[in-house]
Predict the 3D structure of the following.
Amino acid sequence: MAETEMMEFLKKEGISDRILSEVEHFRSYYKLNADMERRVPDPMYHYYGADVWEKALSALLVGEHLLLSGPKATGKNVLAQDLAAVFHRPEWDISLYINTDAASLIGTDTFENGAVRLRKGPILRVAEEGGFGVLDEINMAKNESLAVLHAVLDFRRVIDVPGYDRIYLNEASRFIGTMNYGYAGTREVNEALASRFLIIQMPVISEENLKKLIRDKYPDIREEYAEQFSKLFHDIRRKCEGGEISTKALDLRGLMASINLIRHGLGAVDAIELGIVNKCFDEYERQLVKDMITVRFPGDLGKEKIFSL
Amino acid sequence: MEISEFEKKRAANLIWNGAENYDIEPGFRVFDSEGHADLYWNSIVGAVHKHYDWKKLEDFYLTFHEKTDQTAYESLFWIAMENCTFEREKELRPVFPYLRREYAKHQLKSLEGSFALEDSAGQRVLAIMHGHFRRALGENESLPDIVDVKLLNDIEVNGDLDTDQVIDKIADTLETYFTYRRPGSQKPAPKRSVSPFSLLFTRRRKGHTGDMGPIRRLAFGYGEHLSEYGSEVLDQSRLSVAFARYSAQTDEGLKEYITNYFGKPLYDEQQVRRIEKEYCFGNHTDVHLHFTDGAYDEDMLKSGFAGKMRKQAVEQAKENEAAFQENIAKYRVTILRLTNRIRNSMLMHMDSQVVKSNAGRLDTSLIWRGLELDDDRIFRKVLPGDNGNLSVDILLDASTSQVHRQPIVAAQGYMIAESLTRCGIPVRVYSFCSMNGYTVVNLFRDYQEVKKNRNIFRYFTTGANRDGLAIRLAAGMIEKNDAEHRLLIVLSDCQPNDVVKVRSSSGTYQDYAGQTGVEDTAAEVHRARMEGITVLCVFTGDDKSLPSVQRIYGRHFARIRKLDLFADTVGSMLQTCLRNI
């Protein structure tokens, strides 16, 4: 079972027993409809960072909604998914974009079997099923279209759908927003919305935790190379923070994919080029990123040295 | 040998990467004989910053300055630092042994036969370095001279030593094998360097190295030293002359001078005084303003120096327009392309569309289709667009630093204005410069003046630039328009500089230049953004000003290497902007 495995993981990460027992209590108290089982996520990755875990779990336990704010590759969505798994709740992924409107969130009229019906939107489903709604890139949407969420998210916990019904939020329902402040195409989140969330500023994954993550995903990788990959990622991050390059090359998914490629036999430098270097389409940036790889990995490095197979 | 800005940048990045710190000033960078940034050496230089106290090392390094064998000492210093840093770093970066081997192989091959070019100390250092890298390859150092072998042993400093010990070790070695003496050294210097001729000798040598500029040939490549020349030298001498002239004149005379120089004022005296009161406070107290659209009469052209300059500006306008006409075919295509690009983004993002769909608001007149034809698309859905209008302000830096680019800036500015006009977006174009305590705003075209795009050819450059005040003024002017989305695009090299000093609260005065200017401009940009104005910068400066542009505009700038790209860059900015609203 995914959630027992998650609990094991949390114990190992050093989350306090008090919090974990409350999570257990939450799970046994709020039963799940059988047909919702398939919506409970089975996470691919674990979020590393005991500090953030404790904050997030505590906030959700007391019934608050969460807003995860942080730069690229800080694991916002990984954490959101992990949380739904730990609490064993069905999850709805709601990707917000510029043209998101109230209808696409709550629901619209549709026509079925000769009659007009309400087609329920994800927010409504979360409310009914006691699910976890992940509002992805919440600051991509216009503030006006998010206004419908205000009553949902605050003490009223209610959705009033004109011509349909007044729906109260299931007690187990929680919303988790994610946002990348200052990312291209984002806008300011207005105060009314922000005040309805508890906000966690997601820290950048530490070198130590990234090493753990890599070893967790690829257990046969040699310790010293897990470290080199983790250090490479932090080299890139520092360069982004220094304003030398954009965040295109700061790509954790790309790094993990590169390691996987190496494991399947591609040379290390080539694999990293595919996964990271070529993410920069600007020749200038690409050279700077390539230099970072060259001063981290020998040109002839391959699978044999990196993995102990 | 030409070293491109990009390779310099690359070297700096390698150093920052090696040091794991982007705050340091990469004062010393290494390039190979083709002018490429050296991967291995620059990483070593960076790692030196990480493992040792660079401040101390730098003080020591500067004692080589103007010594007889300066480059030999410098080379040996770096060989020593390479050795000890490598020892420390190889554990942390397993790639280092590989890089070092590759470097040594390459270096030994390429350096064969280059001995003849060197003076005696140079030859010796080169031989030492050969020995050093042979050892790195696991070979015998094969140095014929037993003293050189000893020197090599001594210069290969151990990684266990701390900064002070490393310095002592290198200094001792140099004192043993060369004429080098540390400042305050107790050892008697050899005769040669205390002889009365040595001073002459050193001077001559200095002239010799001076010819090579900051980039010097060292044993292992070319090293560029920045620190001894200072990281930022602000030349205010040109300005202070102007300032002296300024203070010698009466206020009235000065106003006339400025008017003759730039053109008739747009506002009457009372209005200007009110505007000055409104805008010239804080850091810009004491600054006067002059708004003009460049209008002049014949009398003005005859009024001494200012008239001459006015005439020159008029000539420049003709030149700008002629340059444009010469390439008109090319520019027309650009205008068309730009127009289409902007129009497309507008269509895509600004129009709401009502479409038939199977969900949405029920359209009662279509219900029969659902019942009779089994067509469930009986709803109307609005694909929302944004009908908020947009205004664009383009603010051009017209200080002397842009002097060689006048025709290009004018042509590019014209193309932007023309494209926006064709799309029906209101655009205002103006330039700013500062002279004799005045900040002059030259208005080429206001929002509604759709027929006046050609005025942009009047763009001419002179004087200094007080960016902070210019942005404050621009923001103030923009606030008066009621467009929903307001965009200010600044063309600038981000080196604010002006004669009127900044008065601090303690009563002291600071130059409006360097960090003070940058901080002030950054504050003004921030204030404009708080007012809901989108401020973007098209940056034309060099690498040196990159920290300034980042400080001022954050991430909201686009760097253009060639001004030819100005119009296209603004096009992309507009596209992004339209997409976001």
Remarks:
- The two ends of chain A are 28 Å apart (CA to CA).
- Chain A touches chain B at residues 98-99, 101, 103, 108-112, 114, 116, 119, 182, 184-185, 187, 224, 228, 231, 234-235, 238-239, 241-244, 284, 287-288, 291-292, 294-300 (CB under 8 Å).
- Strands of chain A lie at 66-69, 91-95, 107-112, 115-120, 132-136, 158-161, 165-168, 174-179, 198-201.
